[in-house]
Amino acid sequence: MVNLLNFSHLCLAGSRLNIFVPKFTMRLFWTLILIVLYNGCSSEGVNSTLPVRPQVVNIGCMLSFNTVVGKVTKVAVEAAVEDINSNPNVLGGTKLNMITLDSNSSGFLGIVEAIRFMETDTMAIVGPQSSVIAHVVSNIANELQVPLLSFAATDPSLSSLQYPFFVRTSPSDKFQMEAIAEMVEYYEWREVIAIYIDDDFGRNGIVALADQLAKRRCSISYKAAMKPEATLDDARDVLVQVALRESRIMVVHTYPSKGLEIFSMAQYLGMIDKGYVWIATNWLSTILDAAGPLPSEKKESLEGAITLRVHTPGSELKQKFVSRWSNLTRKAGVTGPSGMSTYALYAYDTVWLLARAINEFFNQGGNVSFSKDPRLTELNSGSLNLDSMSIFHEGKLLRDNIFKVNMTGVTGPFSFTPDKNLFCPTFEVINVVGTGFRKVGYWSEYSGLSIVPPETLYSKPPNRSASNQQLHSIIWPGQITQRPRGWVFPNNGRQLIIGVPNRASFREFVGKRPGSDSFRGYCIEVFTNAVDLLPYAVPYKLVAFGDGHNNPDDTELMRLITAGVYDAAIGDIAITTNRTKMVDFTQPYIESGLVVVAPVKEQNSNAWAFLSPFTPRMWFVTGSFFLIVGTVIWILEHRLNDDFRGPPSKQIVTVLWFSFSTLFTAQRENTVSTFGRVVLLIWLFVVLIINSSYTASLTSILTVQKLSSPITGIESLVNTKEPIGYQLGSFARNYLIQELHIDESRLVPLNLPEDYAKALKDGPSRGGVAAVVDERAYMELFLSTRCQFSILGQEFTKNGWGFAFPRDSPLAVDMSTAILKLSENGELQRIHDKWLSGIACTSQNTKLEVDRLQLKSFSGLFFLCGLACFLALLIYFVMLAFQYCQYYPNSEIASESSRSGRLQTFLSFADEKEESVRSRSKRRQLETTSVRSMDQDASVNGSRIDRSEIYSNRVVSFGESV
């Protein structure tokens, strides 16, 4: 209303002045008035929709000033606040007022500081530095809706699901543990030992490591937890227990202040030496970057260690900040180590992230307003002043803007994924060597391990294949470059308890010495020779499994390994699918599949043995082709060859004689036609192959002893209803029931080789079995002295025997390598010949029924011969038909009154000798020429001659010639 009155007064004054002021001056006056009014209305419109930005906003910062990380991050945070406040374009003139408090690495002080922040209308808090404190303060931040931005609380369990107002502005330890797990897999290790501080930070980090290792079939074999306030004596006690373990891969996840103490004690105990692998999380790279040159004694304790450092790609922004660092630390008056670290870079970017989010917050109309929490107001807090804490009304809007920020900072591209983690976290793999360290590669969630910066791979499709994972060579503890095995047998005096099947039969494989606890046999000698090849001593004790009267169940022995009763098992243990789910097996040291053994009888030759080489169908087809080929040759030769002419009876005899005489290639008749010779040549080749095969098969039948059995293999055995024997305790029983679906009532357990022989001799009719199904290794030993039985058919399973160890046991891998060495140097064959020499009944002169020659073996030859006959006849009849049409004019063919007459004429023509047809054709041509000459003479003389008479005479002449 005031603006309108002012405007009317101005108009009135303008009208009065109009009398005295020139027209041009009045126009200029009104223009200025309109501009002023427009600006006033515009300003009023903005103020009506957006609140006025405050001149200052409060943000908190919680650090531990007495730590290496706290010192450098305090400098970075203050530098970021100074840079933001000096640039009015960042917050539109608003200044950041940062209140920095020292939590002194105490969770209790962290709570107190958080409460103090809430009393001063703080919009957001940068920090805390510790994951343990972050767990506590996050609950307060959730309650009061104040965003909590931490660049150092890397505990993976600090998630936005549980703590919606917690914002992690650096990579979570989940990714760091994934990188370590991929390195473990890359170097083909299977177990690691985790050394960590037993608090939220340490425990949750190791849980994440265990999850990542499990995805790669690796594991943590021992967790060495240390209390947060552990002394050097505590570290020594923990490391002594670690040294007694098998694994030599150490993963140290702790704080910088404790990490160096652990490494110093490990060096004192001789654990920074050849064979050990030490992998430290990024606490070590933080010390190397921020603490400056380390003393020589501390440097020696880190020799050969591997650590991770968050990778920040090079950029102009980063270079400028790094170049300012010495001036910033000098200006802040920092004493002691103050080198640059990745924590300082992320702390600097965290403040900038918050500033950009606050700016967007104000652009969206956000208002900095707080109110008392009614629940705290109602609470009689006494002197604690809890009711002074206020709820930030629009904290959710600020939090959402924080997660939406997409900027480029000194750490590179800075944005969040939908699960509230930083986009594409990457790490550098650092190897501590000599007086410094060197970069040996990178890890990123996008590309895995690589030797090139991950940002150069983002433009390519992700490739996580094993062949694409690479790292440069590493100098390990002890100044060695060869990859450590990562596992040794612990020198703690404990013997391996190894279970050995105490068999009742086939003791040549494994058997207990009478009157002692020792064992002997083929399997035992293979094991002892393999153990001797290991590069370390393995104390062990063999313990019998079973009573020695009945063969034990090997599957139950595998279960006892899983239960921890035995540390391993050796003996004649078949490797099966179900057992591999419980234990790890070594490389098989002998092949042994299931076979069928049954009684066999000798078959003597008889009067009709010469028919045995061919099957009846083969005999029939062969005889048919003899007749077919003979007939084809007769057809092709009949019009040309006098040997294939004559009375019908003679021609039939000729065909039969010619056909079967090709067996001896001594035909009396010669072939003269081209097609006949081609067919005969192909047929003689077929006869040669058939004759040779027949001779070879008949020789084998008459000279080799032949055995027969109604059972030909597992297929015929399954189709019967007769009982089947199996070895007691063998996996054969479950295989026959589960895989071949044989009724359990048909299976008969047998214990000793004598039981086998008796059951097979008695047969089903006298309470025995029709056949025995067992492993080939046993059956070959059984048949060595029992020639009346034989293996029928082929092996129907393919497995072997191996030594069993607990899952993921490194000893299983080393024993497999030793078994391969035994095989390569011939020692395995020598042991086999020593214990399992000479199978007496295996002879080249004894075999089961000889396979008869089948028709399918010669089907190709018969097809070629039949095709040749067909093509030859086809071409022959086409040529014959063409000749017939040529020698018999159409008028003569048409003169025949009936179809049968024309057919008879064609058959007579086909039966006629070709030489006679050609001579008659020649005479016909001469007569035709003479008639034409007479016609011409008659025409010249003007005489008329009856042409019918001339043709009549020609017909008579043709008849006489016949």
Q: Could you explain the architecture of this structure?
A:
The protein is α/β, with parallel strands linked by helices and 962 residues long. An eight-stranded mixed sheet has the order 7-6-8-9-10-15-16-17, sandwiched between helices. Strands 2-1-3-4-5 form a five-stranded parallel sheet, sandwiched between helices. The radius of gyration is 51 Å and the shape is elongated. The relative contact order is 0.07. Mean pLDDT is 81; it is low at 1-48, 842-850 and 942-962.
Which SSEs are present, and which pair or pack?
Layout: H1 2-17, H2 23-49, E1 56-63, H3 68-85, H4 88-91, E2 95-102, H5 107-118, E3 122-126, H6 131-144, E4 148-150, E5 166-168, H7 173-186, E6 191-197, H8 200-214, E7 219-226, H9 232-243, E8 249-253, H10 256-268, E9 277-280, H11 283-290, H12 296-301, E10 306-310, H13 316-332, H14 342-363, E11 370-372, H15 374-378, E12 390-392, H16 395-404, E13 407-409, E14 412-414, E15 426-433, E16 436-444, E17 448-450, E18 496-501, E19 511-512, E20 519-520, H17 522-532, E21 540-545, H18 554-562, E22 568-569, H19 577-580, E23 584-585, E24 590-591, E25 594-599, E26 601-603, H20 616-637, H21 648-661, H22 674-703, E27 705-708, H23 714-718, E28 724-727, H24 732-738, E29 747-750, H25 753-762, E30 771-775, H26 776-783, E31 789-792, E32 800-801, E33 804-805, H27 810-824, H28 827-835, E34 846-848, H29 859-887, H30 890-894, H31 899-911, H32 914-941, H33 947-961
Parallel strand pairs: 1-2, 1-3, 3-4, 4-5, 6-7, 6-8, 8-9, 9-10, 18-21, 18-22, 27-34, 28-29, 28-30
Antiparallel strand pairs: 10-15, 11-12, 13-14, 15-16, 16-17, 19-20, 23-33, 24-32, 25-30, 25-31, 26-27
